[in-house]
Fold:
Amino acid sequence: MSPHPKEMWENRYGNDDTFIYGLEPNEFLAASLNDIATGEVLCLADGEGRNGVHLAALGHTVTSVDLAESGMAKAAQLAAERGVELTTVVADLAEFDLGENRWDMIVSIFAHTPPPIRTKVHAGIATALRPNGVFILEAYTPDQAGRGTGGPPVPELMMTLEGLRQELVGMTIHTGRELVRSVIEGHLHTGDGAVVQVIASPEQ
Ligand SMILES: C[S@@+](CC[C@H](N)C(=O)[O-])C[C@H]1O[C@@H](n2cnc3c(N)ncnc32)[C@H](O)[C@@H]1O
Structure:
């Protein structure tokens, strides 16, 4: 029987001295930030903090949240090494309160959770963002199953653009696409991956 997700992620991060998704930010996120003013950012399921630390280094005020204490400890360590501020929160997104009118940006990179958690989180994005806020997401699609280059073990944890259109209540999707791209991001993301990418903001 597979371990509970928290136990699995604690072991993955805690039993490995390296950063398993690397030290560089997610490629889609990094490429999407050029025209976005600095502000308050929430990084969902931020793992070992590669994305939160990158955003902090760009001048954003960043809060990273993740289930895994061992991941958030490595994120805090990375932030200290880079000389940037990062607020880390160990929490299950099933219970985490995104807040209201609270964030200028919310980032979700490979934040694969069971559908009930995912739909609850996505339904709260529009309320949690400020009116001109932005949501940036990349995730594996079910087409990733069987590729052997990373991603969740079962399709129900993956996302589709059509599903995200339903789940992101009150959001306008400016960029929304499914594609296969080379994902070389640490030793668990190792080759061509089927992903969905979204940039969205609250409906005006
Ligand atoms: C594939 S990793 C991605 C980590 C990071 N976003 C990155 O791209 O480097 C998925 C992350 O989701 C986190 N996670 C899974 N279920 C969660 C939940 N219910 N609440 C919070 N975090 C969760 C795991 O601990 C893990 O860090």
About this structure: The first strand starts at residue 40 and ends at 44.
